[in-house]
Amino acid sequence: MRFVIAAGTTRTAAIEGISAAGGDADVMRHTPSADVEIVEYGRPVCAPVVPVSPSGCPTPAVVTRAVRKRLKFDTLLLDAGLAMPTAAPTVNVADPGHDLRDPEPVPEADATVDAARELGRTLPDREVVIGESIPGGTTTALGVLRALGEPYDVSSSLAENPLPLKRDVVSDGLDASGVSAGDAAGKPLLAIRRMGDPVLAAVFGLAAGAASQGADVTLAGGTQMIAAAALLRHADVEGPIRVATTAFVAADREADLRRAATNLDLSLAVTDPGFDQASGTAFARYRDGEAKEGVGMGGALWLAERHGVPMGDVRDGMHEILERLSVGSYRDPVGTGSGEEPG
Amino acid sequence: MRFVIAAGTTRTAAIEGISAAGGDADVMRHTPSADVEIVEYGRPVCAPVVPVSPSGCPTPAVVTRAVRKRLKFDTLLLDAGLAMPTAAPTVNVADPGHDLRDPEPVPEADATVDAARELGRTLPDREVVIGESIPGGTTTALGVLRALGEPYDVSSSLAENPLPLKRDVVSDGLDASGVSAGDAAGKPLLAIRRMGDPVLAAVFGLAAGAASQGADVTLAGGTQMIAAAALLRHADVEGPIRVATTAFVAADREADLRRAATNLDLSLAVTDPGFDQASGTAFARYRDGEAKEGVGMGGALWLAERHGVPMGDVRDGMHEILERLSVGSYRDPVGTGSGEEPG
After folding, report:
1. Per-residue pLDDT tens for B101-146?
2. Which of A155, A305, B8, B180 is a good FRET partner for B80, with 20 to 30 A between their CA atoms?
3. By the 8 A CB rule, do B10 and B134 touch?
4. From residue B248, how far is each of A29, A191, B53, B252, B286 by CA, in Å?
């Protein structure tokens, strides 16, 4: 099993009010670079920030790291458009994406999909789990769903989902791209190039390549992975696709998770990390509906459950990481950790 | 503990007769890209070759992979001048090096050392083991040693060390660079820029950075790592430095391993993988004096010994990998493997 994380950025994330992934837009540009460092090393190394929302909700990279530390699974980190340097080893498959309201927000979509597909096709693993880190990613996911003609709404990393704003951005994007809702049905590359982001290009390509060699494919995430799964179905990938996500996304009434899973013939794995049994601001923010998913969190939790790791152990692991990152008190929403990881 | 491998290329490797790392010059350009894929995935993924010498000696990446498979240590692969694409995730710190006989074979030496030093300084690990993969690397190591004024001779991946040829190349390089032997004493950056290679720049920088934060540093390799250690001593790094290498390098009478280790105040760990107790062409070629080291082999063997892994298990692991790579029979010195790795 290999745990893949496609990490990237777009200018879409800079739209005021779109994302909670890391606070303000300047800090947010570092979020995916910091996320992959946290998964790889347990803390930011080269990235100058710990991604924490203004209210003190830490990045779900902490959850994925806690599980990885326990299960020691292999990782493959994809630079699918990072805007800032990272000290985590990556395979580069894309440049940053533009604004969804541009005519072509992912001009190199075809090349990214090709590179990722070839990688997925040649990986030696019989099972891949694919997560993502991209601020503003649910908005571009909504763009892709609309371009494909899929009616589902998306979730949010904010407790209050700014769906009206996302719909406006998508509507402007469709106008600018000269694409009407449904025009890209059966044309996943068109949907990504005109209405997507480079991370969706990478996830779609990698999943398609892995599926083509018979690997078991799990998309680890919420409604962004619904968009990735829709792209796969519109590319006539007919085999089984699993979406592994968190109870927080499943509980989001605005997101059409279950309906989409049924209609797209996806098997759905929902895992509850039991954050109601933990104290501390981090867990409280998740209970409030912040973050919900990201950086493969749902997939990591599903793997933990599958391997018999109690959720209490996952939460303990998170506690350790958060303390080392000095976000235990959450008084300093954006700080740089410097502690060492034991063992 | 983190196992780092700096992988790169130079035009020096294209000089006829310099290296055995992968057969002819065209194939050799792929060797480091394939090596890091073998360490990461157990077989080449994107690289179109399995590095095997014309006589059937497989890359020591197979040994490092066999130990990694067993110990599951963390890795950090550095693109220190890869000429060909790789599907292994890397942090890029350098472009390929030029010919040692050019005036400045590593024009960006300072930037590479800076980037690698910063990475080494910020890594969370209390212990780093650093290996290399660079065809022609002992020749550039000899160049660095001469520029620093260090008198030691180097080993070779060939059973018959072409030392006279290496000395000629180094002599031409010194002339072209306007550097006399010893001119770069106390000036490691000058030695690398005018007479080195990008992998030595990366190893030197990473080791210096890691040492500066108090990490335990092991240079995993033969005489190339003697050159890296000399660079560290010439940069006034005074703490303990370990060189972990194989019994094959230690048995090489032309290489001044022990004398250099004593004079440079290095602790030397020599591990014998017991290839005399294994049958098959791969092991026979090593016994004949081919390859000897590379891709961190000596460091991997040292870690195996330290963790109580019997050398018989390492050899069994190698057998498995070699069979999967279809180089078990060694009838096809350069082939592409396609098998899956179990577990």
Report:
1. 999 999 999 999 999 999 999 999 999 999 999 999 999 999 999 9
2. B180
3. yes
4. 49, 57, 17, 6, 8
In 3D space, the residue among B235, B240, B257 whose CA is nearest the CA of residue B248 turns out to be: B257
B242 phi and psi angles, rounded to 5 deg: -105, 135
Q: How many residues does chain A have?
A: 343
Residue pair B7/B32 in contact (Cβ under 8 Å)? The answer is yes
> A235 vs chain B: nearest CA distance in angstroms?
24
Give the count of Cβ contacts less than 8 A between chain A and B. Answer: 57
- 8 Å CB contact between B32 and B153: no
Question: How far apart, in Å, do the first and last CA atoms of chain B sit?
Answer: 23
Q: What is the mean pLDDT of each run of 10 residues along chain A (343 residues)?
A: 98 88 78 98 94 92 98 97 97 98 98 98 97 97 98 94 96 98 98 98 98 98 98 97 98 94 98 95 95 97 98 97 76 42 51
Closest C-alpha among A226, A221, A225, A222 to residue A264: A226
Q: What integer pLDDT is reported at residue B18 of this predicted model? A: 86
Q: What ipTM, to 2 d.p.?
A: 0.90
* A301 min Cα distance to partner chain B (Å): 21
- Measured CA to CA, the distance from residue A219 to residue A268 in angstroms comes to 10
Q: In this complex, do A89 and B87 lie within 8 Å of one another by their Cβ atoms?
A: no
pTM of the model: 0.93
Q: Give, rounded to a whole angstrom, the gap between the first and last alpha carbons of chain A.
A: 23
Please report residues of A whose CB lies closer than 8 A to that of B41: 123-124
- DSSP character at residue B332: S
Please answer whether residues A206 and A119 qualify as being in contact, where contact means their C-beta atoms are separated by less than 8 angstroms. Answer: yes
The whole-angstrom separation of Cα A50 and Cα A37 is 10
pLDDT tens, position by position, A188-226? 999 999 999 999 999 999 999 999 999 999 999 999 999
Assess B46–A contact: CB distance below 8 Å, yes or no. yes
- Name residue, tokens 């030695």: B191
Enumerate residues 6+ apart whose C-beta is below 8 A from B334.
B22, B23, B27, B49, B50, B52
Span B59-112, pLDDT tens digits: 999 999 999 999 999 999 999 999 999 999 999 999 999 999 999 999 999 999
Residues 6+ apart with CB under 8 A from B59: B21, B22, B31, B34, B35, B38, B50, B51, B52, B291, B294, B295
B284 CB near a chain A CB, below 8 Å?
no
Distance CA B134, CA B154 (A): 15
User: Residue B21 — very low, low, confident or very high, per pLDDT cuts 50/70/90?
Assistant: low
Query: Measured between CB atoms, does A325 come within 8 Å of chain B?
Result: no
Q: Which of B86, B75, B74 is nearest to B35 (CA)?
A: B86
Say if CB B264 and CB B230 are below 8 A apart. Answer: yes
Task: Return the residue matching tokens 């690397």.
Answer: B137
What rounded mean pLDDT belongs to chain B?
Answer: 93
Which residue in the set A72, A89, A123 is minimally distant from B45, CB to CB? A123
Gap between the Cα atoms of A202 and B12, Å rounded: 36
Please give the helix or strand (H or E) that residue A217 lies within, else none.
strand A216-220
- What is the Cα–Cα distance from B258 to B256, expressed in whole angstroms? 6
pLDDT digits (tens, 9 = 90+) for A245-267: 999 999 999 998 999 999 999 99
